[in-house]
Amino acid sequence: MTKKLKIGVLGCGPRGLQMARIVMLCPEAAELCAVSDPNPVQLEKARALREGLQCFESSDALLESGLVDAVITEIPPSVHTEYTVKALRRGIHVLGEIPAVNSLEEGNLLWQTVSSAKALYMCASNPHYRSKTLFLLKLAEMGLVGKTGYIETEYMHDMTGMRDQWRQNYESCRYCTHSLGPVLALLKDDEFVSVSCMSTGDCFGNGFAHNAMSALLRTRNNVVVRFLTAFAMPYCGPAHTTVIHTDRGIIKLHNDKALVYSKDLRDYATDGSFIEIPFTAGATARPYSLKIADEKLFAAAGWGHNGSDNAMLLDFIDAIRNGKPSPIGIKAGLAMTYPGIFAAESAREGGALKTITYPWS
To answer: Measured between alpha carbons, how far is 80 from 102 in angstroms, rounded to an integer?
Structure first.
């Protein structure tokens, strides 16, 4: 395909408007053609993005309009699967937000739908495109990671001041893809097979159903992963941190830097200490290789999570236009989503150990 991809955005909340602007940053390959949202205030904000943008009050109307080749699903998790399936059955490509599904039944439906669809489905996991993930995978490619035994990964984001948002009553362990996606990218063909999870409940009385949830997972190859989500605890963030323990050393990944202690690199560290590698610190920073023609629009798009949203969208567009496989396909999407569903079930039962199964199990 050489023509520009006509893209629509389902949902015009802050994230939807952000992704709409990022589509507009790819004028050589894509065109923002339509948006939808039932909220007239949000729809009016979207209408101001560009002249002639088609605005719909429902996602169904946008899908039925015939205006788009592809959509981005910036809608609540409860309807991700419904509209992904509707789009794919119409032959419309989907960049599907995370978590990929909200239940095991939805997972089976989406697995079957994507497997038989002619249109492309990509799981919209921007953490795969963050500098720290790419750095980790480069270390692995160079043979500097070694055999992984234990990992700790966290997603801390204090949202107690934000009301009228879906995370307030959401089991936060379900929002595991930011943390587990990069872990699975490192572990490659491995997958999670069991989990035990516990919740604090609303221990602080701040109106969130779960102040924090902590899960202990095991993979088929016996890698143990401790995973924490906390959306209702005081924290200066958001922050995604991961600590990887291997037979070669320790790798600590933060939003803005990596700390590496490796048997292979001890000669380059002072007194055998950690080697610090700075990343794209600050909201406005991005990888050197990512060139942006319109800096004002890039800033309005919240700098695309340090440019990771831009890189993800470009990969999605490239796969469709050039007939390539999905960069992050349905199996990868469900593999990073299902552990959260089983973790939530475990937490409801006080931490009961659960066996994780998948549509391909």
So the answer is: 8
Q: Verify cis geometry, omega within 30 degrees of 0, for the bond prior to 238.
A: yes
Nearest Cα to 95, choosing from 302, 322, 318?
A: 318
Taking CA atoms, 50 is separated from 54, 160, 302, in Å, by 10, 34, 18
Buried-state track 90-100, b at ≥16 Cβ within 10 A, e below 16: eebbbbbbbbb
**Measured at the alpha carbon of residue 179, what is the angle toward residues 178 and 181, in degrees to the nearest 5?**
75
pLDDT digits (tens, 9 = 90+) for 52-109: 999 999 999 999 999 999 999 999 888 999 999 999 999 999 999 999 999 999 999 9
Please, which residues have CB within 8 angstroms of residue 144's CB and are 6 or more apart in sequence? 248, 262, 264, 265
| Residue 293 token pair | 């023609």
Q: What six digits make up the tokens of 129?
A: 């495109």
Give phi and psi for 129, each to the nearest 5: -105, 5
